[in-house]
Amino acid sequence: MGEPICIKDFEEFAYKTLPRNALDYYRSGAGQQETLANNKRAYSNYRIRPRCLRNVAETDISVTVQGEHVSMPVGISPTAMQRMAHPDGECANAKAAQDMGTIFILSTISTSSIEEVAEAAPRGIKWFQLYIYRDREVTRQLVSRAEHAGFRALVLTVDAPFFGLRLADIRNKFVLPPHLKLANFQGTKSTDINKSKAGSSLNDYVNSLFDQTIEWKDIAWLKSITKLPIILKGILNFEDAIMAADAGVSGIIVSNHGGRQVDTWPASIEALPEIVKAVGDRVEVYVDGGVTQGTDVFKALALGAKMVFMGRPALWGLTYAGEAGVKKILNIMKREFESTLAISGCARISDITPSMVVHKSYYAK
Ligand code: FNR
């Protein structure tokens, strides 16, 4: 294969290169993987209605997110255990995002610690993705470590009280390779993920340590222990979006966890419009799931997202060449988005209007 020039090329490289245990863990969705496929397919159901003759000589794709200047509306979603893709794992991913001037979200169950990532990418905009552990002291410590390390927001994942049933992981009896650790929990009982006798050891870990009792009132608890803005990740309907806004959160990531939780949940781009309509300007709305092209970014922004995030594409970039691979991925997305924007008649993001993206049924009339 020659030099990869689109996200699909990186995916193909990773499929040929990664060991089975890691590849299946990264690529899988829940059940028969309809939601996983639909996350991508649903983008094709929308068409871009271009405009012309609008002076696009100079383009600006920067955005303001949570009050901060971000160079492009594409950031990195939290994905667990990135050192299976490359020895520098999360540190390399965070550095690439820093170099590109965009946001990196670190998973709670990472193979590089909060402090290692902060040291690797001290100037980058980093958010910390939080799972609430039954042991609230464990949770409290994670929050305080993220604050001290300079993370700028907490991303509370609300779609994963349990982990979904990913058939390949059950078949493979997924384990974290023995040279790797859940780096945020060294020396505590929350580090030990490889205890399972049957099935995926990750599911057993989650079932025994995550707090399945969490409710809306726990957002108030989380707010009471941190000054960081709280962003809820994993909302798929307007009812919950309104409750999130009422609870005083600063942002929502419309997400189905990359199709990994319950099969036949909607594609995230399908769920986005009702959420944007319900919360208006009360909270910033972002989306992830199935974003692999610049045209996807344009569509998500036209449908009301402030920014998009990508999970697996960054893992494929890491697999290809660590930090340099993720930078290539982000540069490809940047170039594709700039091309889509300018050729469709927009010089800047505020020029994208809702009428520029329509469901394909518009043309069937
Ligand atoms: C994830 N995701 C995820 N989400 C989260 O909140 N905490 C986590 O630890 C993880 N871990 C994780 C591992 C892997 C291998 C994948 C693929 C996904 C979900 C992730 O943040 C994001 O929602 C999806 O990856 C977005 O879909 P795409 O971009 O992968 O299609």
TrEMBL record:
Q: Which reaction does it catalyse?
A: 2-hydroxyoctanoate + O2 = 2-oxooctanoate + H2O2; a (2S)-2-hydroxycarboxylate + O2 = a 2-oxocarboxylate + H2O2
Q: Where does glyoxylate bind?
A: 25, 131, 166, 257, 260
- Name the top EC class: oxidoreductase
**UniProt-listed PROSITE patterns:** FMN_HYDROXY_ACID_DH_1 (PS00557), FMN_HYDROXY_ACID_DH_2 (PS51349)
Residues at which FMN binds: 78-80, 107, 129, 157, 233, 255, 311-312
Q: What is its EC number?
A: 1.1.3.15
UniProt xrefs under Gene3D superfamilies: Aldolase class I
UniProt-listed InterPro entries: Aldolase_TIM (IPR013785), Alpha-hydoxy_acid_DH_FMN (IPR012133), FMN-dep_DH (IPR000262), FMN_HAD (IPR037396), FMN_hydac_DH_AS (IPR008259)
Biological process (GO) annotations?
fatty acid alpha-oxidation
Q: Where is the active site?
A: 257 (proton acceptor)
SUPFAM superfamilies assigned: FMN-linked oxidoreductases
Homology family = Belongs to the FMN-dependent alpha-hydroxy acid dehydrogenase family.
Would you tell me the protein name for this molecule?
A: (S)-2-hydroxy-acid oxidase
